[in-house]
Write a structure and sequence with these properties.
With about 70 residues, this protein is mainly α. Helix content is about 60%, strand content about 0%.
Length: about 70
């Protein structure tokens, strides 16, 4: 089981897509993960090999200002 919070604009787009295609939001979330997990793992491995004193610094591009706003208060 996986529960994720999405930025409101992504949630709205996903909801519209699901309704327009008579699929579930879960279907599209699963499809996106399955199709991109190899790429994400490879990217994470490269970034992890570049980690210095800041263990999270290598992932800073995944932590944009938009991400921080979207997940504020979690």
């Amino acid at each position: 089981m996986l529960a994720i919070r999405l930025p409101p604009e992504i949630e709205q787009r996903l909801d519209a897509l699901a309704k327009a295609t008579c699929r579930t939001k879960t279907f599209y979330a699963r499809q996106a993960i399955v199709e991109h997990i190899d790429e994400i793992e490879a990217r994470a491995a490269i970034m992890a090999s570049e980690v210095t004193d800041d263990p999270f610094g290598a992932f800073s591009e995944w932590d944009s200002a938009a991400d921080r706003r979207a997940y504020a208060g979690l």
